[in-house]
Amino acid sequence: MIPRNITPELLNQLKEYPIVTVLGPRQSGKTTLTKAVLTDYEYVSLEHPENRQIATEDPKAFLKRYDNKVIFDEVQRAPHLLSYLQGMVDERSENGQFVLTGSHQLELRASISQSLAGRTGILHLLPLTISELSAANIQFEDFEDYLFNGFMPRVYDQNQRPHTAYANYYQTYLERDVRQLINLKDVTLFEKFIKLLAGRVGQLANYQSLANDVGVDSKTIKHWLSILEASFVIFKLPPYFENFGKRVIKSPKYYFTDTGLLCYLLDIETVKQVRRDPLMGNMFENLVALEALKTRYNQGLSPNLYYFRDSAGNEIDLLFKSGRDIVGIEIKAASTWHHRFKKGLVHFSEKNSPLYQSLVAYSGERIEFSDGVSAIPYDQVAEVFA
Question: What are the residue boundaries of the AAA domain, all occurrences included (predicted)?
Fold first, then answer.
């Protein structure tokens, strides 16, 4: 197993809460992590039909069999268990009793807020980070290799071919889960939608345009997007518009939680094709924004990540807010520095709000400028949030 950066936070929360819930996409390593780190915990998969049947038909009897120090995997398959766990942890008043994992947060969050409010810590485990791969002596010279190979642990643990692995991932998990969640009758219509979404990665969301291209209404598009977001397939980057009036764009952007899946959906079959793809810049944005998101989640923190754009076209690709401090990050898929990369950062500081840090993430060397702007390699972005 490749060691995960979230491990210290998992252990800390087990000291602070009777239950810790680990959410994340399918195959992101939730099961591997919890079983490897918590060797003294019993493991129960609720994907197993027999376990799920007993848990559903007689939850009290089921929980008597597993009454302490247990990992319940894919607990969204039996969400009613949470109300029974509430009574058990309240009786004992001790921390670290149970670990729950789940891959669909809408179902779980509703049950958690109803039954386990104040009783569980919540962590989000996304696929591997660049720093986790580096610590395991897995490094690529070019960002295109990271984009194509993606970050799912199994690709590296099993030495799988990325395009084939993500094709199987899509068909085995994504299609099945989505079909169950939205009662999908026409799979080809949804496949058209998600491929069009991949083709618009990092662009301002235009629900009506996407609806017209897919052949459904915008309400359906918004529903499908919410399902993909809740299933950790995509994440939404909201706009930052604090006190900036009507001139600020307020549509979100969407990115994928694994760039390997994104490449598969764009029909990219080799690293060479990544280098030639017209969306390479958007894909590079996805890579950097994703590293920021994973770093925040691995510390057990809210993302607090945004982008900025006004009606005049002034923009910053990524904003991070901590307290009153705002860090601006421009993202450029270039290895050579150009002074125009600073433009959005300087404009924001002068016209809207002074930036605590002004950074340009690109694929070149680190450069410190006298005006306070820093150019940093994309694989060092995580250090900004450490």
Answer: 18-133
The DSSP secondary structure of 220-256, one letter per residue, reads HHHHHHHHHHHTTSEEEEPBP-TT-GGGB----EEEE
Token pair 């421009």: residue = 330
Element (DSSP H or E) covering residue 88: helix 81-92
Polymer length in residues for the chain: 386
In single-letter form, the type of residue at position 41 comes to: Y
Domains of the chain: 7-124 (3.40.50.300), 138-284 (1.10.10), 306-385 (no CATH)
Task: State the pLDDT confidence band at 246, using cuts at 50, 70 and 90.
Answer: low
Statement: residue 78 has pLDDT above 60: yes
3-state SS class at 300: coil
Q: Which two tokens stand for residue 260?
A: 């390997």
What percent of the chain is modeled with pLDDT above 90? 76
Reduce the DSSP state of residue 164 to 3 states and report it: helix
Residues 126/232, Cβ–Cβ less than 8 Å = yes
**pLDDT value of residue 319:** 97
Contacts of 349 (CB under 8 A, 6+ apart): 328, 355, 358
Show Cβ contacts of residue 111 under 8 Å, excluding neighbours closer than 6 positions.
Answer: 79, 80, 82, 83
- The beta strands (E) that lie in the chain are given as 19-23, 42-45, 70-73, 98-102, 120-124, 234-237, 253-256, 305-309, 315-322, 325-331, 357-362, 367-368, 373-377
Give tens-digit pLDDT for 18-43.
999 999 999 999 999 999 999 999 99
